Amino acid sequence: MSAPDTSSPPQERVVAPPPLWIVVGLGNPGEQYAETPHNLGFRVIAKLGESAGIRVNRPEAKSLVGVGEIEGRKVVLATPLTYMNLSGGAVRELLKKYEAGREALLLVFDELSLPFGSIRIRERGSAGGHNGVDSVIDGVESQEFTRIRLGIAPDHPVAPEHKAAFVLKAFPKAAKPLVEELVDRGADAVRMLLRDGVAKAMNEFNRREAAEK
After folding, report:
1. Residue, of 12 and 6, whose pLDDT is higher
2. Catalytic: 38?
3. What is the pLDDT, as a whole number, of residue 159?
4. pTM here?
5. Would you tell me which CATH number, out of the four given (3.40.50.1470, 3.60.20.30, 1.20.1440.60, 3.40.47.10), belongs to the domain 21-212?
6. Which of 64, 129, 150, 186 has the least CB density, counted as fewest CB within 10 Å?
7. Among the residues of the chain, which ranges form H helices?
């Protein structure tokens, strides 16, 4: 008769957070794009900078950049100046400048395939037809980076030939309170991810969105 197994069960591997997070919001520079769905990433970065006292105004690596701390984590907040479809070059230069790997990248952007107001967090994945994300994947040569997706799809379907016009047209004034709420919640998702880790943030936000749906 064999002796009972008294060894401890295998422990789940804990992945240490990067020493520095590169938090990049996607969008287009210029006042004419400021209120459009495609600039929600920029607006989340602005909200984070405002609440943390980080001025995101230093030109470097084809972006506007601010460095500071959020939730006890050192962060680089950045908004590329290359326009949405060429965002990958700026992200690549940011990672190179700060000697960071793609595991340090947190990308925030609008997502037309998600219902308006919803949030999804993923650790990897394809671009899903988003040209800015596709450019970032090319720039870092990988799909393995964390992203926070902000849903912008209206109740009615948007025809493929109208998608570009939709994301570059300003939100209607009536939607402003809902847009501000989405930006606030997007910033909250970034803070929780920095504070508690990717897995907990995914569990909280992805589960909440699924329950609400």
Report:
1. 6
2. yes
3. 87
4. 0.89
5. 3.40.50.1470
6. 129
7. 40-52, 87-97, 131-140, 163-167, 176-196, 198-212
